[in-house]
Design a protein that fits this description.
The protein has about 290 residues and is α/β, with parallel strands linked by helices. It has one domain. The chain contains five helices and 18 strands. An eleven-stranded mixed β-sheet has the order 2-4-5-7-9-11-12-13-14-15-16, with helices on one face. Strands 6-8-10 form a three-stranded parallel β-sheet. The radius of gyration is 22 Å and the shape is elongated. It holds the Pfam family LRR_At5g56370. InterPro entries: FBD (IPR006566), FBL13/AtMIF1-like (IPR050232), LRR_dom_sf (IPR032675), LRR_FXL15/At3g58940/PEG3-like (IPR055411).
């Protein structure tokens, strides 16, 4: 789809929400002012994107002075670019990128940001100014994207420091890239970790949380299934891994005296600390449910 130089289409005072999906190209007017003064929500979903479209996104953001919600679901055809996200009124930002790498840079200037969701391919995210109002972060980088030509910690260190004010954190998949977690552990009150396998790196990470998150109120961990659950050995391996990780988790000496722990797996459906009011722990042992 081609969007032409229509002044009517890009100068609209009544538009509040705008969403783009599919394959299309923009020809934004070069010599006209684009005005969307009341736009509060912008979503862009593109299956194929190149660097020429970056200018379009930047132009759109500049035309939305009170934008509060921004969602970018993009697949890049190149992995080396810089995108400026400048939105002074932005409260919620979600970016799900594929095709990016550590050479891809996102510069975020959103001083009122409260919630951020970052996922898919690893890229370099950093803040122009520290978002002091940021409260919640949801972060997921796939296993294949955390291995690359450079140390993932150096790529993410600025981003992790930038979200140091949050009190709620959701982590998915590969925890090895969060070795710079110390920047945000002090203020965290809620942590949720999911889609992990319970290997040694996951154990080290939760141990670090237990030793450093001194005001943590709740830690929720969900372990992922192994790939070979079809045979008996696979089921036994899954149950054993869940049991060992769960035992380690509940034997941790938490720095926070008020922290409640909840664990979920495939066979150990639910295990909780006694003071967590979510019902009894449940273990599904090869089709038989056992409750405490």
């Amino acid at each position: 789809m081609m969007i032409g130089n229509s002044a009517l289409r890009f100068n609209c005072h009544s538009l509040i929400e705008l969403e783009f999906r599919g394959n299309f190209r923009f020809n934004l007017p070069e010599n006209r002012i684009i005005t969307l003064p009341n736009l509060k929500k912008l979503e862009i979903h593109l299956p194929v994107l190149n660097t020429t479209f970056i200018r379009t996104i930047i132009t759109l953001l500049k035309s939305c002075p009170i934008l509060e919600i921004l969602t970018l679901i993009l697949k890049w055809s190149c992995d080396e670019f810089v995108m400026d996200i400048c939105a002074p009124n932005l409260r919620y930002f979600k970016a799900s990128m594929s095709g990016t790498s550590w050479r891809s840079r996102f510069m975020i200037d959103a001083p009122r940001l409260k919630d951020i969701v970052i996922g898919s391919s690893l890229a370099c995210y950093s803040f122009v100014n520290h978002p002091g109002r940021l409260q919640n972060a949801n972060i997921s980088f796939r296993h294949s994207t955390s291995k690359g030509e450079t140390d993932s910690v150096s790529v993410l260190s600025d981003f992790i420091q930038g979200i140091s004010s949050i009190n709620s954190l959701d982590l998915y998949d590969d925890l090895t890239i969060f070795n710079c977690f110390r920047y945000m552990s002090v203020k965290l009150k809620y942590i949720e970790i999911s889609e992990i396998t319970g290997d040694e790196s996951d154990v080290r990470f939760v141990k670090y949380i237990s030793n450093n998150a001194n005001v943590l109120e709740q830690l929720r961990v969900m372990i992922d299934n192994l790939d070979n659950l079809e045979d008996d050995d696979g089921e036994k391996d899954q149950l054993w891994r869940e049991y060992m990780f769960c035992r380690t988790l509940f034997n941790l000496s938490m720095r926070s005296s008020v922290c409640e722990i909840e664990f979920e797996g495939h066979y150990i459906i639910k295990a909780t600390t006694p003071n967590l009011d979510v019902g009894p722990s449940i273990v599904n042992y090869f089709g038989r449910q056992l409750s405490e």
